[in-house]
């Protein structure tokens, strides 16, 4: 179905001109008529509207919020789109989406019931009937709107967002009812058990991605459904279309994944214990993804997140420094309290220093300055090439079976280049990327992670162009093993040795009181990484999640 865009008509009212003077209607208590203004002070300032009042300011009152919300919801419920759109701060966008609500989504018999406000936000229940070619099914969900003051005059008005219409909608998305086009799929774990969102709540985006990728080839037939059809912005963010309501069932095809039911269930449980937590577990020897979970169900941070990885990036940086002879596990290495490069002054946590220590000691304690001090000996592209050539990152060529963000290590200069050495600057990763980093160290070479075996659809997995030398690999494993045994990862990894290695990380984020806590590690033939956003130090936050899953074995 085509996308429609409607622009609301705007009318402007001008004062009447009488004999070269401005005539303005004046209203007041018990007063009405025309006021005529010629030259003089008033004319110097332009036309004066006697009704003009200063813009309203201050917090919105309960009456303002509830009345504005009710005006909008009542007009929407009655199908009076222009009136509903006029109650928002973007009438054109509201008109387009609310018009599509009826014509494209085919929703009727609508009832909108406002709940109790919190500040300027009003939740509301949506009930309606979706109908298509003789098939009907009731629809029910909860959304919310926020009332703000209009900039021009301070009057209360609904702040327009697509999520007002449905919480899954983003800019450019639409709701459409019709033949699904893509048949449903049933996804199964590695042992043949069905994967559902009821059993594994955070797999919603993964199951949507599997349907989009394999629905037409997995042997199913399409049904009729109400779907969120993604616009350009969502497609760029690699968000999949989403089923909102199934009116008639299609016949599902089947897709076998590499997920382990045991590890997936445990991962779901562990991330649920913290807000904004994500984790991935994979098998280093093959690249198979065994578990992926997020405490937030709306977006798959584990596969598609784009976050600064902090000191976990030092695994990649260390491999570079060792290869170039700028560091060695047992060699003496500087770790001053601070180090200035490119005009930026870099600090260690609490400005600690290690006097006369080895590079292994700096890695285990996560000394920032030990890495920043080597920036002047590196070219701007060195870290980017290391990430791409050895670890398979930042090339946008992974094909795991569902959409992913494959990490980004851009070429930078001066202070930003130095910051990238410790996982800040422009470096961006997610738990899948960092689990792959640990897996590369464990296996000795990069194996592209995958959720669906390439034999299912004949796709080609990404490969790295080279591997680390045996000496570099041996030293890197020693750095991670020592960190797991005696460094910042020791508490989380306690009792899991001796065949293990780990690295912690804390990534500072602007306007965030606590850093994002990162942890990447391997044990036996398992590798895992996790992040807890705004959680604090990685060893205390993401560490216990990762360690608990590694402790379960393959």
UniProtKB/TrEMBL annotation:
Classification via InterPro entries: Beta-lactam/transpept, Beta-lactam/transpept-like, MecA_N, PCN-bd_Tpept
Keyword Plastid found: no
Domain Penicillin-binding protein transpeptidase: 278-550
Record flagged with keyword Iron-sulfur: no
GO CC annotations on file: plasma membrane
Transmembrane annotation, as ranges: 16-37
One Gene Ontology biological process: response to antibiotic
Domain NTF2-like N-terminal transpeptidase: 66-173
SUPFAM superfamilies associated with the record: beta-lactamase/transpeptidase-like (SSF56601)
GO molecular function: penicillin binding; peptidoglycan L,D-transpeptidase activity
Database matches in Pfam families: MecA_N (PF05223), Transpeptidase (PF00905)
This protein's UniProt keywords: Membrane, Transmembrane, Transmembrane helix
Protein name: Penicillin-binding protein
Species name: Streptomyces griseoviridis
Lineage: Bacteria, Bacillati, Actinomycetota, Actinomycetes, Kitasatosporales
């Amino acid at each position: 179905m085509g996308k429609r865009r409607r622009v609301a008509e705007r009318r402007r009212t001008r004062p009447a001109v009488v004999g070269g003077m401005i005539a303005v209607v004046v209203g007041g208590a018990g007063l009405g008529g025309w006021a005529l203004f010629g030259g003089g002070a008033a004319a110097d300032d332009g036309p004066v509207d006697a009704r003009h009042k200063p813009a309203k300011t201050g917090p919105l009152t309960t009456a303002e919020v509830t009345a504005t919300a009710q005006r909008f919801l009542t007009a929407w419920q009655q199908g009076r789109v222009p009136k509903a759109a006029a109650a928002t701060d973007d009438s054109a966008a509201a008109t387009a989406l609310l018009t599509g609500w009826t014509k494209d989504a085919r929703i009727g018999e609508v009832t909108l019931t406002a709940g109790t406000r919190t500040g300027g936000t009003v939740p509301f229940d949506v009930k309606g009937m979706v109908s298509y070619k003789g098939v009907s099914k009731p629809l029910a969900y909860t959304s919310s709107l926020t009332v703000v003051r209009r900039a021009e005059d301070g009057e209360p008005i609904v702040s327009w967002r697509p999520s007002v219409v449905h919480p899954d909608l983003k800019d450019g998305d639409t709701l459409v009812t019709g033949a699904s086009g893509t048949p449903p799929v049933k996804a199964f774990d590695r042992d043949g058990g069905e994967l559902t969102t009821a059993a594994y709540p955070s797999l919603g985006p993964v199951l949507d991605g599997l349907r989009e990728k394999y629905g037409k080839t997995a042997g199913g037939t399409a049904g009729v459904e109400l779907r969120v059809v993604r616009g350009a912005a969502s497609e760029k963010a690699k968000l999949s279309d989403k089923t909102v309501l199934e009116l008639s069932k299609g016949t599902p095809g089947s897709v076998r994944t590499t997920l382990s039911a045991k590890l997936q269930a445990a991962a779901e449980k562990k991330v649920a214990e913290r807000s904004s937590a994500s984790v991935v577990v994979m098998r280093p020897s093959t690249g198979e993804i065994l578990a992926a979970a997020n405490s937030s169900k709306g977006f798959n941070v584990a596969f598609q997140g784009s976050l600064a990885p902090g000191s976990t990036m030092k695994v990649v940086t260390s491999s570079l420094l060792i290869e170039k002879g700028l560091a060695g596990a047992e060699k003496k290495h500087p770790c001053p309290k601070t180090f200035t490069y490119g005009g930026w002054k870099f600090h260690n946590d609490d400005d600690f220093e290690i006097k006369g220590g080895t590079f292994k000691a700096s890695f285990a304690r996560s000394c920032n300055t030990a890495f920043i001090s080597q920036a002047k000996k590196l070219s701007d592209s060195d870290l980017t090439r290391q990430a791409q050539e050895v670890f398979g990152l930042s090339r946008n060529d992974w094909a795991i079976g569902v959409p992913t963000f494959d990490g980004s290590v851009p070429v930078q200069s001066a202070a930003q280049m130095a910051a990238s050495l410790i996982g800040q600057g422009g470096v961006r990763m997610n738990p899948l990327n960092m689990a792959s980093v640990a897996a590369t160290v464990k296996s000795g070479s990069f194996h592209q992670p995958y959720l669906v075996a390439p034999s299912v659809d004949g796709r080609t997995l990404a490969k790295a162009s080279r591997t680390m030398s045996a000496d570099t690999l041996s030293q890197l494993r020693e750095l991670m093993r020592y960190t797991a045994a005696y460094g910042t990862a020791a508490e989380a990894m306690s009792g899991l040795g001796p065949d293990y290695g780990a690295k912690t990380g804390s990534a500072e984020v602007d306007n965030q009181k606590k850093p994002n806590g990162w942890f990447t590690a391997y044990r036996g033939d398992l590798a895992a990484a996790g992040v807890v956003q705004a959680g604090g130090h990685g060893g205390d936050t993401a560490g216990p999640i990762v360690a608990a899953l590694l402790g379960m074995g393959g």
